[in-house]
Amino acid sequence: MLGACVEKPSTLERVKEDGVLRVITRNSPATYFQDRNGETGFEYELVKRFADDLGVKLQIETADNLDDLFGQLGKPSGPVLAAAGLVSSERRAAQVKFSHPYLEVTPQVIYRNGRSRPTEAKGLVGKKIMVLKGSSHADQLAELKKKFPTLEYEESDAVEVVDLLRMVDEGQIDLTLVDSNELAMNQVYFPNVRVAFDLGDARDQRWAVAPGEDNSLLNEINEFIDKSQKNGTLQRLKDRYYGHVDVLGYVGAYTFAQHLQQRLPKYEKHFKSYAKVEQIDWRLLAAIGYQESMWQPEVTSKTGVRGLMMLTQRTAQAMGVSNRLDPRQSIMGGAKYFMLVKEQLDDSIQEPDRTWFALAAYNVGSGHLEDARTLAKREKLDPNKWLDVKKMLPRLSQKQWYSKTKYGYARGGEPVHFVANIRRYYDILTWVTQPQLEGQVAEGNLHVPAVNKDKPAEQTPAM
Ligand code: BLG
After folding, report:
1. Is 154 in the active site?
2. Model pTM?
3. Which of the listed residues 91, 94, 188, 246 has the most CB atoms within 10 Å of its CB?
4. What is the DSSP letter of 36?
5. d(CA 191, CA 184)
6. Which helix (H) or strand (E) holds 283?
7. Ligand 1, closest atom to CA 341?
């Protein structure tokens, strides 16, 4: 009996033998979705790094709702890991094993601006409330109902967090509960959504494995999470996905949401058509337009630069723009000028840095950008890396430095903010226009994101 002496492989060994890490998650902007570069999302990026560390391929599966997710994880032939923004709770601890934490979030009660704002748990009574079925927020409400028996709420398995936020935004429900990271990420889509109050303390998000897992995989996961904490990977992902509100502030975030609905649709067709002519991603062009004028065609800066894309008189002339205040012409000129400065860049500058350099040149001029690259070389920094050159740009406004450059004084701090803001807007616009939402993003009419239950995102079986 040969088989009897062969020990059953551990979960980790099995994953390595198969060469595939099967992960279950949810299809939502905070976890996993498709963007301009393909698959993305906070959970996706973290779990992809883990699969790379193990030297195996990543196979993502998505669950329709949380009950489904836990059900799939428990199946012997199912995925081995759930990475879906889960917080541990007693109820769940009986169903799965949780990893070390990777993100701290606070549950928040969300209401619509202009409606009455509850400030404590008692204030939830008598309101129309909806939360995700099987969520930790549903557990919280069940707990509260013991104290306030007249509290009513609906649990739905037909919606995602973005749907709940939209329902509050549009006034279909009074309140919902979401985690702070979800709001931070989605505030830019929902102009009317506000935090009423934090419901309880901060909690940790963790990955989960099946309860019968022999700890081989769980130990490996924990080591990976600890390492990602120490080497800054987690912080970088948090900044990228949940940092919009930190950068824009809450007011900036919902103002952007307002402008996305009210202003962008008027100019979207121009962004798209001139982006096509110049072969730029239209969302990058729209992001430049937002940074320049907040999509207002008639603005004039203190320095006399004008219009939606803020062209100087010289640039406008060179690009064949006769009226800078005409939004179509301004966008045409801006797109043309962006490509011109991009093509003038040194061939040794590679993407994605090449795009960030081109943006900086758009704002401060190619000559001054070249000066900053020269300063970088002198400091033994890499003149082809945006991270290095952006450190030099502010020096162009200090005499001790600009006096030794070819083009002299420039307001070098401005392009640094300019590029950072545009990258932020570009990311946000990318989320709003993900391919998976294409059917819902009607031409000339941008919608806030929703997860289409009937038509799930196409999955790549194994990468
Ligand atoms: C840019 C020009 C560049 C020019 C630089 O200024 O304008 N870009 C465009 O017209 C698109 O061509 O480079 S140069 O020709 O090589 O010198 C430098 O002069 C515009 C910038 C200036 C900036 N916005 C586009 O980003 C601006 O308006 N700054 C003032 C802000 S405030 O009023 O002081 O707040």
Report:
1. no
2. 0.72
3. 188
4. T
5. 13
6. helix 282-293
7. 12
